[in-house]
Amino acid sequence: xxxxNEKLTRLMRHVLKLHRSHVDRLIRDYDVYPxxxxxxMRLSQQDGQSQRELAAGMLVKPATLTVxxxxxEKTGLVSRAPDDRDQRVTRVYLTDKGRIAAEAVMRAIEEVxxxxxxxxxxxxxxLLRRFVLQMHDNLxxxxxx
Amino acid sequence: xxxxNEKLTRLMRHVLKLHRSHVDRLIRDYDVYPxxxxxxMRLSQQDGQSQRELAAGMLVKPATLTVxxxxxEKTGLVSRAPDDRDQRVTRVYLTDKGRIAAEAVMRAIEEVxxxxxxxxxxxxxxLLRRFVLQMHDNLxxxxxx
DNA sequence: AGGTTAAAATTAGCTAGCTAACTAAAAATA
DNA sequence: TATTTTTAGTTAGCTAGCTAATTTTAACCT
Lengths: 145, 145
Prior knowledge:
Two copies of one chain form a homodimer. By secondary structure, the first copy, chain A, is mainly alpha-helical. Chain A has one domain (8-120): Winged helix-like DNA-binding domain superfamily/Winged helix DNA-binding domain (Arc Repressor Mutant, subunit A, Orthogonal Bundle). Helices cover 61% and strands 8% of the residues of chain A. The first copy, chain A, has helices at residues 8-26, 37-45, 51-58, 62-74, 96-116, 122-140, and strands at residues 49-50, 78-82, 90-94. In chain A, helix 1 crosses helix 5 and helix 2 (37-45) packs across helix 5. Chain A is globular. Chain A binds chain B through residues 2, 4, 7-19, 22, 25, 38, 59, 109, 112-113, 115-120, 124-125, 127-129, 131-136, 138-140, 142, 144, and chain B through 2, 4, 7-19, 22, 25, 38, 59, 109, 112-113, 115-120, 124-125, 127-129, 131-136, 138-140, 142, 144. Chain B binds a DNA duplex through residues 17, 21, 33-36, 50-52, 60-68, 70-71, 86-90.
């Protein structure tokens, strides 16, 4: 299915697509849509972050988050409240429903991740991480000529 | 920036995002939008494929392609014509403009790919491919319990 | 203090991807 | 042959992501 001159990045894209669709399937009953798991994870690690902080942590643009949070507020997963000190910033909180969803998401991710790296030795996992980090450094240090 | 308990898949997602944005930047002058490079590459390898074949090769749903091709027809990168034998199938062809864009895309991808794997030994590349293939197999053989 | 600059969030408008429901043509079958 | 089933493609409606422009509030600076 994947010939050996197939670009590795294409293969990686496909793997991540599978990863995401598995997670989606496992949390289908929680009103959580495909892009939202990372947000729920971050909020359950630290509740009440500003949208800017969340966007930075999720490597996503603030505008993307604005729309996403609007939807999640509507489905009752999060609530928003302005910061006391700085009226510009909006802080985001998990609702009870959101907390339940976040735990389901956490379990789902752990499960998919475990499957994904089944058969990997610990040192292979480390090596893989080193490779991906090197790819990251190669691409992020690259200023256009 | 990426703590060692950060999920590896998240890191991979970020790397692919960088990869895509670099390619986008390099082809900015050819009316080619982010999802279109894979399509142009496939068509330049074999012109006149059916939409179904293209969708399967790109690992994308046919409905996605319908919309995408509509846009690309409008920007003049591709043309569509019904198959002679089977009136259900639509075949897709590169225009002259599309062929020029496809070559630019090819150069851009090669350039980014080269950057991405700079400093990798050939055997490291192979090892990485083996890892990613194993991830792929782990996730695609997984039938939900 | 008052005017300017910077920062946080939103809005508008686009592309990409999905699912589900539909149409039309070909193939299979009774 | 007539009916049913399968296949290719489209349409509608959604989420996710982006950029660019706008608004509002805080910070800065003379």
